[in-house]
Amino acid sequence: MSDDSAKRAFMVQPGGAPLTYTILVRGFAAPVAIAGRADRPLVSFDLTLTVTHPGPGFPDDIAAVMSYEDIVEDLRRLCAESDVPGADYLAGRAAELCLSHAKVRRVQADVTIPAPDSGGPSAGASLTRARPGQA
User: Fold this and answer.
1) pTM of the predicted model as reported, rounded to 2 decimal places
2) Where is this region: Disordered (predicted)?
């Protein structure tokens, strides 16, 4: 099987921007060792990824499209870190990990850390990052 991905032309929208699609990762949760906390709270992640469409006639092959499983594996490794500073750090690192995949053009990362006591407010962060030139 040959890889003809270099020969494929990207589909473009009016104005010349590459055609994209959206991958949603909702409700991913894992325990995280937050700095200064004795417990390992179950931190929640919601991601919205804008991904370059592989073009017309792309093969029925996982290599031709972005797999959310790659993102989930990245999140699992992130959540395994020790002494994580907080929600801002987790959202920023999640966005960096998503953008490390060449097909991802833009990502919105929302992270929620529950309060140490069940009645307290949750902490969270939301950010959007994009590749240069990708609004």
Assistant:
1) 0.80
2) 112-135
Strands 104-113 and 42-52: antiparallel
Q: What is the pLDDT of residues 59-118, one digit of tens each?
A: 555 555 667 888 999 999 999 999 999 999 999 999 999 999 988 999 999 999 999 887
User: By residue range, what is the domain housing residue 43?
Assistant: 20-118
| Alpha carbon 87 to its chain's center | 15
- Alpha-carbon span 101 to 66, nearest angstrom: 8
Mean pLDDT of 25-32: 97
- Output the pLDDT for position 106: 96
* Cβ(71)–Cβ(25) below 8 Å: yes
- For residue 120, report the phi and psi dihedrals to the nearest 5 degrees: -85, 170
Q: What distance in Å separates the CA atoms of residue 79 and residue 75, rounded to the nearest whole number?
A: 6
Counted domains in the chain = 1
All residues at 6 or more sequence positions from 54 whose CB lies less than 8 Å from its CB, including other chains: 5, 8, 10, 64, 65
Q: Please name the amino acid found at residue 87.
A: A
**Residue 70 included in any domain:** yes
CATH number of the domain residue 105 falls in = 3.30.1130.10
